[in-house]
Amino acid sequence: MKSDVMTRTAVQAPMAAPAEPLVEIRDLHVHFGTPWRQVQAVNGVDLTLARGEVLTILGESGSGKSVTLRSLMRLLPERKTRLTGSVRVDGQDVLAMSRRELSRFRGRTAAMIFQEPMLAFDPVFTVGDQIAETVCRHEGVSRREGLARALELFDRVRIPSAKRRLANYPHELSGGMSQRAMIALALSCRPKLLLADEPTTALDATVQIQILLLLRELQRELGMSVIFVTHDMGVANEISDRIAVMYAGRLVETGAVDTVIAQPRHPYTLGLMHSRASGELRGQRLSAIPGAPPDMSAPPPGCAFAPRCPHADATCTQALPGMSELGDGHRAACWRLGETAS
Amino acid sequence: MSTYFLKRILYVVPITLAVSFFCFSLVHLSPGDPMDAVVSADAPREVVAMVERAYGFDRPLPEQFALWVSRALQGDLGLSAANGRAVTTEVFAALKNTLLLALAASLIGFTLGCTFGLLAGYWQGSLLDRLVTGFAVGGVSVPHYWLGMLLVIVFSVELNWLPSSGAGPGSSNDWAFEWAYLRHLILPAVTLSVIPMGVVTRTVRAMVAEILAHEFVEALRAKGLAEKRVFLHVVKNVAPTALAVMGLQLGYLLGGSILVETVFSWPGTGLLLNNAIFQRDLPILQGTILVLALFFVLLNLIVDLAQARLDPRIQRS
Amino acid sequence: MTSDPRDRGGRAQPLLRVKGLRKHFVIKRDLLGRPLSRVHAVDGIDFEVRKGETLGIVGESGCGKSTTARLLMHLLQPDGGEVIFDGDPVGTRGGLSLREMRRQMQMVFQNSYASLNPRMTIEESIAFGPQVHGVGRRESRQRARRLLDQVGLLPERFAQRYPHELSGGQRQRINIARALALEPRLLILDEAVSALDKSVEAQVLNLLGDLKQEYGLTYLFISHDLNVVRYISDRVMVMYLGKVAEVGDSEALYRAPAHPYTRALMSAMPSLEPGRRTQTAPLAGDPPNPIDLPPGCRFCPRCPLAVDLCRGTEPELAVLPGGGHLSACHRAAEVQAAVSNPQPSVEESVR
Amino acid sequence: DGQVLRIAMTASDIPLTTGQPDSGFEGYRFLGYTVYDALINWDLSSADEVSGLTPGLAESWEVDEEDTRVWTFTLRQGVSFHDGSEWNADAAIWNLDKVYDEESPQFDARQAGNVRGRIPAMDQYEKVDDHTIRFTTREPDAWFPYQLTFLLFSSPAQWEALGGDWDAFAREPSGTGPFRLTRLVPRERAVLEPNADYWDAERVPRIERIELIPMPESSTRTSALLSDQVDWIETPAPDAIPRMESRGMTITSNPYPHTWPYQFSMLEGSPWRDINVRKAANLAVDREGLEALLGGLMVPAAGIVTPDHPWYGEPEFETRYDPEEAMRLLEESGYGPDNPVEVKVLISTSGSGQMQPLAMNEYIQQNLAEVGIALDFEVLDWESLFPNWRRGAEDPSSRGAHATNITFGWLDPFAAFYRFMHSSMAPPNGFNWGYMDDPEYDRLLDEARVTFDQEAQDAILAEFHARMVDDAAWLWVAHDVGPRAMQPRVKGFVQAKNWFQDLTPVYIEE
Amino acid sequence: MSLTLDTAVSPMAAPPAEPGYWRSVFARLRRDPVAMVAGLILLAIVLMAIFAPWLAPQSPYSTSMLHRLQPIGSPGFPLGSDELGRDVLSRLIHGARLSLLIGVMPVINAFVIGSAIGIVAGFVGGRTNTVIMRVIDVFYAFPAVLLAIALAGALGAGLVNSLFSLTVVFIPPIARVAESVTTQVRSVDYIEAARASGARSLTIIRRHVLGNVLGPIFVYATSLISVSMILASGLSFLGLGARPPMPEWGLMLNTMRDAIYVNPWVTVLPGMMIFTVSICFNMLSDGLRSAMDVKL
Ligand SMILES: Nc1ncnc2c1ncn2[C@@H]1O[C@H](COP(=O)(O)OP(=O)(O)OP(=O)(O)O)[C@@H](O)[C@H]1O
Ligand SMILES: Nc1ncnc2c1ncn2[C@@H]1O[C@H](COP(=O)(O)OP(=O)(O)OP(=O)(O)O)[C@@H](O)[C@H]1O
Ligand SMILES: [Mg+2]
Ligand SMILES: [Mg+2]
């Protein structure tokens, strides 16, 4: 462990609430236009992330988690994406950046880890080269120095026989190994913000936990902020300080991880918690959320969850609920919060 | 050397055998008498019989085949029925010219094709892309023998800028990189380059588009790499496939230049083959096809090996 | 639940008994086509599935779960071993014919999309199986509609649709309906819910429960989600590198795993208790390739408890005292004892 | 180098250079009589008179009056091959062995194949002394001298020097001709340079170099000429001639022994057995119209040979354009508008010397239709039509046709008449495709063949020819004029009335 | 079993029912202007071929020596006349029949034969596959043009021989594509599912494989038509295909070559037709491919 100081900073970060948050997303909308249909992937997301904080975005497939994450780096295909709202990272307005600024920002201020590490590496370059290339790009050092840094990083993410692995091509690494390499790559320029899009979903349980632990450790050591996307509540619990639950392109509930897991308030979060299969429920029916998420090319007018919600009434299908503060940074967007208090 | 390499190389042996067998039987599919080419139709019968003996056409087929293969192994493909010269010399003299033409055409076609393909693929959907795509479709759709005629009309008949036929003022034996010779190469090479240009453009464009859709490209951008560098990655990914396509195209040019060589009277294998067909010069027909096919087999081998070298996924897995 | 007329040996006779089932894939050959290296995908496994139960199979990726399922269905030709269905050997002379076996045993695949023919309507897909077995067109269509209804999809609305017009959960219901169309007794579910969202997964799990009751089905439930397996299974089998590591009653096995691998697998599950986080990883490294297997116990390179015995001798799957619980570990007893204490790897969060 | 003459030939390859060229008469034209000599050469010096024979490597020859099968040739002295070796009787015999003695080391099947068919009379040969040789023919044959023009002589010394290899010899041949071959690139180019020591000082070439380039496509030849890649092209595409003329090119032409006819079948059932039909056909063709159609590149034919030829004779029947008379004749034989003569003709789409077969045949079809002869064409490719010639009208490959349309060249009486008209030449012996069998023809031809006095022989042939024209034995249509196109700077060329041409007087005007 | 709440379906969940797959492909194709224009031109040319005798102003065979080599726009000869005074327009119209026939037929033949070979090889797999594909490989050792010319040249000129040669040329590539598509499809879960339901191989091929495999093979085959058109006409151009005086574009190009100095632009016309048909087939094929490629 590097130092206690670092650990403490990380732990205190959310409470200390320093002057400026690292990430500030205001009213983010992301629409995709394809020749066939219009997809409203993200519809008004507000999100802040303090320095050193780990936030998990939790939600079903298609709820807009990845799109939100990619908006932070403006990685969405420019031609067909309409981005509105504001995204500020480390005091910079991401949506207003020029190409140059953007490419300085990417990888240096914010870095990203992908779900399928195998696919996120260029198959015809060695992993070492791909890391060195990033270092060269951002720090203007030679390839040799870049490779030296890569070696250091490989040791850091505990890749055995690091030197040999550097010369490997991506397909020669196993799943866990390549995710470690991916993390090494993301950390190569000591980013302030690490974005992780379901980095463990493709991995086996025994490997997943290794990666989670590694990430947690590195986050503490480097004092990074992390936004972590997953649909696995357990993973969220393992890694994050705060959870933001997304449904149909909107945040429906956010709060400290313990609070949200212990006392979820939004009916969707509640439903998720209760529909989880576990040993205790053996032989009983699960209280599943009925139906399926809405089609994002034609989202319903009111609360998007209303059609599946056991508490829904007329208001819900007509008007969009705003975020209500429930204390301690725990907030939820629902008209019927009264009914969901345990 | 990996087993892949060894296997790939050994695989050439059965293919070569099969190809030779095909060439031999191909010729004996043909109706008509190989003698027609050697003696004129008004020759008396005893002369025909005499020449037949001299050429060995009177022996039974299997014997002819055995003889042909054993001689072919020693580089002797028999004598031309039309002029009595050694087929090997004839074919290789022509092959040299065809190679020259094919290489010139490839140079033009591949350069343009790669450039166009990379640009169009990179800016997919743009006006440039649409222009290039249209051009490439034109390239693969144009009957090149017709294009050759068209070029002759414009540049030789109407403008009188470039010669319309032949290999140059001396002969192809004296071929030199001098304007007097290069002039002769321009029209046939341009004509012949149109197809590889189209094919390479289309392949490279599709490949680039496909590569760009890969997640790793997003990852590269997420690392903050400059577009130039991203482009380099794309190019390196496209390279193995593009190389394979180009290798094949070069092979097709070698074998497929017959129409263009006929239009421009370029003294290559195509013209040789064309003459052989019409003179029913079966030994030349056999020999040319065999040599071209074997050349193509060899080229395929080289391409595969090169591709394996370039693409770490093939070689190491 | 009525008793099935096809039932032969009564409840005492296992519905499926597998003995020494083996499949090795050759992945590299030399120049003469002789095998150079093989994947020991399934390397001699024995187990049985009792009538009416749900047997869960868990294990890391590549341990041979799907291969086992495909071998049971005879979609792959086994290299060795025996499959006995309700007392009848399958695929041997005098035994159950493949065709008949396939009426009684059906399978649902993980990829709900790939397992439906994109060019066939839902109705046609479901009716295909019965038609193959000689049921008339009309009747098989009727059966398809009835099944659609049973898996909770309105026949009028869904019968004529194509797979791409449905959501993942809906498609997986169709797959279940298709498997049920032949009225099987045993349903193999190979990661049938893994690709679904949690909210939808619960729906399908409920459906499976309902169907099981309704038809008295027996399930072979393959998954890598320990929670789900624990929820649905009566008994659980843990596989490691093509071998059975441990089999036992679900509760017993979860409470007191008798194989160090099972134990590791369990402690690798992310904690769901607020305020508790996993502190150390139970296993280091990735699951190894089943290509070059170490002598002795194949888990021993990763095993914290490995001793010389483990490196030298391969442990047999042995019944533990108390019965019904089998483990392939030389030190099974010690492992079981160790787990009785609170899990050491999870501690109070620092927060 | 201004004195270079580049000639585009119609052959697709350089004809064989070892002495007995292939590629037909074009081969003899460019790589036969240039590099080599025969015992008897063609006199190609005049454009107006029909070309005759002239002494070549033999100074003189005579036939034995006792036994007319025996010919004695006195060889020219002081002639040497290009390699410097001497021309003598040994060299002559060596060359004869080259094509007749399959056991001799210098025997060459290719040369033999090219020449033996052209000298059917040859039986035996022997050396008398160093400058005299003697031939014996199978039968008395007055046309033997014509046949000997095809036997060319290569240098034995050169062959020996090159290791007895005809392939090597082909690249560095040595003859006695006015040109020497200095370079050979197969299929592309042959270079001829003057033989300054040629025995006939008058025929020492004026040009410094001739490059012979094979160009089988007529459009290719045309564009090569127009773009100044060559100075001279053989048989330009007739349609392109106006264009060439407008660019100042010289077009030369002269009728030569080449006839474009319909050869009739005399088999049972052929309408041509009726002389009225034959005459009607000959009267129905508007040859002037056809000439206009071909841009003037033909002369009307009224027999096998041209009217200015000594063998033409004085026929009574005038081959002219007279459709009325044609119709009258047909009526006489019972034909009419409702009852046309129906005949089937084998024609080809193209072929060596065939001129413009499709266009010409269709024109003739129209002409004949007007008088009531309905032509039905059976279009074959040249490769099928030509072999059919020797198989005859009865052969299945003739598909029941009543006439065949093959042009031919004739230089001697055998080639002009005998092989077509003598009954012994019926298939498969010769080219009497239609099984013509007229005792009178046979008698006249046999007589001419043994008449060794030139004038007497010509008279018999004239009688024969006149009789044949009166008979309207064939449909005579046209004689080719052998068009050539050349750059205006090419001077000195005299186009002889012959298949062969003399290149020695040609020069380039700077 | 009763429908319980949790299995009820939300009204939004399912998109509106769409028509069958091919209809949706066609609908997408219709929205592709390039492909549509190409398709319409082809349709026009096909109609022209069918109705040639009614459309052509003159007989394609009737020669007129007085009107040889007329330039474009001459009275009575809107597109000029050829070396025998035949009306080029009429010959082009009639030529569509033969040219389309010899261009399209080999691909159709090869599609039938090649698909059969490829599907069997792909579906059966194993040793059978190896043997079949190795034989196919031998044909791959020849560039397509060379193979076509070699066969046509060896067999001799003629329409039937040229059709045969081209068919032989196109069988290997189609078989290869068929094989690879089938091999892919064969390992897809729904085929496994069909096998798991006890269906026999033939039934599986018929009901599951064909429908999913023929589409891609068909698209590939359409892209070959353009090559085939060029090659078939090329054979005629060399004198190995159609024989005079048939109206066929490649052959017309050949026989009119000599007139290149008289009226060059008339000689260009037949090639223009080949080019047009070929490019239209290519664009249609491209359109079809992208219409089929859209992720469902
Ligand atoms: N490039 C794009 N073009 C068009 N639509 C897109 C694009 N990217 C995402 N979408 C759509 O936006 C919506 C949100 O997608 P997103 O990837 O954010 O979901 P997600 O929450 O990450 O889901 P998952 O858990 O499956 O990764 C989806 O409906 C998706 O189809
Ligand atoms: N057709 C095949 N050829 C070669 N190897 C195979 C084949 N099918 C499976 N394997 C190998 O066999 C082993 C077991 O595969 P299997 O699919 O049964 O694993 P699994 O337990 O189902 O894994 P997962 O959880 O990833 O589905 C793996 O190493 C796999 O790579
Ligand atoms: Mg996502
Ligand atoms: Mg699996």
TrEMBL record, chain A:
NCBIfam families: oligo_HPY. It catalyses: a dipeptide(out) + ATP + H2O = a dipeptide(in) + ADP + phosphate + H(+). It is a peripheral membrane protein. One of its GO terms (molecular function) is ATP binding. Keywords: ATP-binding, Cell membrane, Membrane, Nucleotide-binding, Transport. Belongs to the ABC transporter superfamily. It is found in: Cell inner membrane. Its EC number is 7.4.2.9. InterPro entries: AAA+_ATPase, ABC_Ni/Peptide_Import, ABC_transporter-like_ATP-bd, ABC_transporter-like_CS, Oligopep_ABC_C, P-loop_NTPase. Its main location: membrane. This is ABC-type dipeptide transporter. CDD domains: ABC_NikE_OppD_transporters. Residues 25-273 form the ABC transporter domain. Transmembrane segments: none annotated.
UniProtKB/TrEMBL annotation, chain B:
It is found in: Cell membrane. Keywords: Cell membrane, Membrane, Transmembrane, Transmembrane helix, Transport. The keyword Transport applies. Residues 95-307 form the ABC transmembrane type-1 domain. It is a multi-pass membrane protein. The chain crosses the membrane at residues 9-29, 99-123, 135-161, 181-200, 238-264, 284-306. InterPro entries: BPD_transp_1_N, MetI-like, MetI-like_sf. The keyword Ion transport does not apply. Belongs to the binding-protein-dependent transport system permease family. OppBC subfamily. This is ABC transporter permease. It comes from Billgrantia aerodenitrificans.
UniProtKB/TrEMBL annotation, chain C:
CDD domains: ABC_NikE_OppD_transporters (cd03257). InterPro entries: AAA+_ATPase (IPR003593), ABC_transp_ATP-bind (IPR050319), ABC_transporter-like_ATP-bd (IPR003439), ABC_transporter-like_CS (IPR017871), Oligopep_ABC_C (IPR013563), P-loop_NTPase (IPR027417). Its main location: membrane. One of its GO terms (molecular function) is ATP binding. It catalyses: glutathione(out) + ATP + H2O = glutathione(in) + ADP + phosphate + H(+). Its EC number is 7.4.2.10. Pfam families: ABC_tran, oligo_HPY. Residues 16-266 form the ABC transporter domain. Keywords: ATP-binding, Cell inner membrane, Cell membrane, Hydrolase, Membrane, Nucleotide-binding, Repeat, Translocase, Transport. The keyword ATP-binding applies. The keyword Magnesium does not apply. Transmembrane segments: none annotated. It is found in: Cell inner membrane; Membrane. It is a peripheral membrane protein. Part of the ABC transporter complex GsiABCD involved in glutathione import. Responsible for energy coupling to the transport system. Belongs to the ABC transporter superfamily. Glutathione importer (TC 3.A.1.5.11) family. The complex is composed of two ATP-binding proteins (GsiA), two transmembrane proteins (GsiC and GsiD) and a solute-binding protein (GsiB). This is Glutathione import ATP-binding protein GsiA. The lineage of its organism: Bacteria, Pseudomonadati, Pseudomonadota, Gammaproteobacteria, Oceanospirillales.
UniProtKB/TrEMBL annotation, chain E:
It comes from the Bacteria. Residues 96-285 form the ABC transmembrane type-1 domain. Signal peptide: none annotated. It is found in: Cell membrane. GO terms for biological process: transmembrane transport. The keyword Membrane applies. Pfam families: BPD_transp_1, OppC_N. PROSITE patterns: ABC_TM1. InterPro entries: BP-dependent_transpt_permease (IPR050366), MetI-like (IPR000515), MetI-like_sf (IPR035906), OppC_N (IPR025966). The chain crosses the membrane at residues 33-56, 100-126, 138-160, 217-240, 261-284. Its main location: membrane. Keywords: Cell membrane, Membrane, Transmembrane, Transmembrane helix, Transport. One of its GO terms (cellular component) is plasma membrane. It is a multi-pass membrane protein. Belongs to the binding-protein-dependent transport system permease family. This is ABC transporter permease. It comes from Billgrantia desiderata.
